[in-house]
From TrEMBL:
<dbReference type="GO" id="GO:1990281">
    <property type="term" value="C:efflux pump complex"/>
</dbReference>
<dbReference type="InterPro" id="IPR058627">
    <property type="entry name" value="MdtA-like_C"/>
</dbReference>
<feature type="domain" description="Multidrug resistance protein MdtA-like C-terminal permuted SH3">
    <location>
        <begin position="12"/>
        <end position="69"/>
    </location>
</feature>
<dbReference type="Pfam" id="PF25967">
    <property type="entry name" value="RND-MFP_C"/>
</dbReference>
<dbReference type="GO" id="GO:0015562">
    <property type="term" value="F:efflux transmembrane transporter activity"/>
</dbReference>
<protein>
    <submittedName>
        <fullName>Unannotated protein</fullName>
    </submittedName>
</protein>
Length: 80
């Protein structure tokens, strides 16, 4: 038997896949594709995290093309 307990839940928030967030001791970042087609890192403040998504509290507007992964050739696999 499995029990699932929800400790916190939010709706209508900006979120990205967990794989899109780069976490380090310097802070959290998300890679985005800018208007020139170049990948840049954007500092973000995160909120709630589940197994699939991370809430983005500050740092993104919601219209960015977020990079989830970069293949060996450096080509972004993006979502957003």
């Amino acid at each position: 038997m499995t029990i699932e307990v929800t400790l916190a839940e939010k709706t209508d928030v900006l979120s990205v896949p967990v794989a899109a967030v780069l976490r380090s001791s310097d802070g959290d970042e998300v890679r985005v594709v800018n208007d020139q087609g170049t990948i840049t890192r954007v500092p973000v403040t995160i909120g709630l995290i589940d197994n699939e998504y991370v809430e983005i509290v500050t740092g993104l507007k919601g219209n960015e093309l977020v990079v989830i992964d970069v293949d060996a050739a450096g080509t972004p696999a993006a979502g957003g």
